[in-house]
Structures are given as structure tokens and as C-alpha cells.
Amino acid sequence: MDRVQWIETTLRAAFAPQHLEIGxxxxxxxxxxxAAAGGGHYSVVVVSSAFAGLDRLARQRAVYAALGDSVGAAxxxxxxxxxxxxxxxxxxxxxx
Length: 96
Fold this sequence. Notes:
single chain; alpha+beta; GMP Synthetase, Chain A, domain 3; 24% strand; three-stranded mixed β-sheet
């Protein structure tokens, strides 16, 4: 299983998201000192009712906790966008 698939499987199990996007941005960071050991750069959008009542920092902490020790190792950098389904509907103009 590659890293993107692993991230997807892990986040689906932890948050049962209504929407999940994972982008592998690693190619744009070739030569970056922090990625020299093979850690990738990823961007993630997670839309889940599990984020209801949590502020942005708590949501991000929950994602980092779900990904565990791979953050900082297999995952060098992670850009997160964490939304509730209602926030997603508002920001995407009504789509899901």
C-alpha cells in the first residue's frame, strides 16, 4: 500500500469522512532538506461530522493523532483543511 492509500485508509477509519481529498505534493519539494530521508509532502481535505464542536487546532491535532508516528517520518509535511459537512456545503456552494 502506498502512502496516499495508507493516509486515506487511516483517515477513513478514524473520521468516516463525507469527503476526503489527498494530494501528494512531494515532487514539488524534491531536494528539500527535510524530505531527503524520503518523507513526503501531502495536502489533505477532510470533511467529517467528527469535527463538529472542535476548533481548527483540535481538528488538526485529531488528524495528527490518527496518523501517529508517520508524521515526521513517512509524512514530512502535511497541509490540512478540516471541515464539518455544513462548513463544506457553505464553502463549496452547496455541493457535497
